[in-house]
């Protein structure tokens, strides 16, 4: 075989070897840098505890008949672990008072009287059993009684010490409830009173307490009056 044929044969063998060995070498080189991939495990949510199994944390509500009582706060003792302050007693809320008392018809004839006038007449009848007569609607040169805006609370033994004291108590009662009664004025023993108190002289009225209201309109018959 000549030198040219031998050289040609050697070149062909070298090409075949390179074709086979090359990819293997690349594969081996790449394999040296490959790190194992971590296995991904899907996280499962923790099992939920049934609501019924959770220890309840309850606030006991205790009614307090008088007033709101604030629960004292306990300060941590020296050396104790610090943390949120704790309440040593349950919170207390004032409960609603018993319903107001319904007022029945009083001593004053209510025909012709307006709502606020009826209310004050019934309230005085209930609060002062010593009173036996209350005048209401009547003819008069002034508009108060004819329009159902005024009553006259007759005072037994009005000139006696007990009678004067009783009249004074009724005036004080009306002044105390002036807003609720719609009080416009009162006259007793020559003194004129407004919701702010005495405000000058008034004619007469030594045997009864005269009380004028703002009226509130004439009743329909369906009104309820409370003490």
Automatic annotation (TrEMBL):
<dbReference type="Pfam" id="PF26571">
    <property type="entry name" value="VldE"/>
</dbReference>
<dbReference type="InterPro" id="IPR058593">
    <property type="entry name" value="ARB_07466-like_C"/>
</dbReference>
<protein>
    <recommendedName>
        <fullName>ARB-07466-like C-terminal domain-containing protein</fullName>
    </recommendedName>
</protein>
<feature type="domain" description="ARB-07466-like C-terminal">
    <location>
        <begin position="110"/>
        <end position="203"/>
    </location>
</feature>
């Amino acid at each position: 075989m000549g030198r040219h044929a031998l050289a040609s044969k050697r070149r062909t063998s070298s090409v075949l070897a390179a074709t086979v060995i090359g990819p293997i070498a690349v594969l081996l080189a790449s394999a040296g840098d490959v790190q194992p991939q971590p296995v991904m495990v899907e996280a499962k949510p923790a099992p939920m505890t049934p609501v019924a199994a959770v220890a309840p944390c309850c606030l006991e509500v205790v009614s307090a008949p008088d007033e709101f009582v604030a629960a004292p706060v306990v300060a941590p003792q020296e050396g104790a672990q610090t943390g949120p302050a704790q309440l040593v007693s349950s919170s207390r809320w004032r409960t609603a008072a018993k319903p107001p008392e319904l007022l029945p018809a009083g001593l004053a004839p209510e025909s012709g009287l307006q709502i606020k006038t009826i209310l004050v007449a019934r309230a005085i009848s209930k609060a002062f059993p010593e009173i036996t007569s209350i005048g209401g609607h009547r003819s008069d040169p002034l508009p108060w009684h004819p329009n159902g805006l005024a009553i006259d609370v007759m005072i037994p033994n009005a000139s006696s010490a007990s009678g004067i004291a009783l009249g004074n108590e009724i005036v004080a009662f009306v002044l105390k409830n002036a807003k609720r009664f719609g009080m416009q004025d009162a006259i007793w023993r020559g003194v004129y009173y407004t919701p702010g108190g005495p405000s000058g002289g008034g004619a007469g009225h030594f045997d009864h307490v005269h009380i004028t209201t703002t009226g509130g309109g004439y009743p329909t018959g369906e009104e309820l009056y409370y003490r």
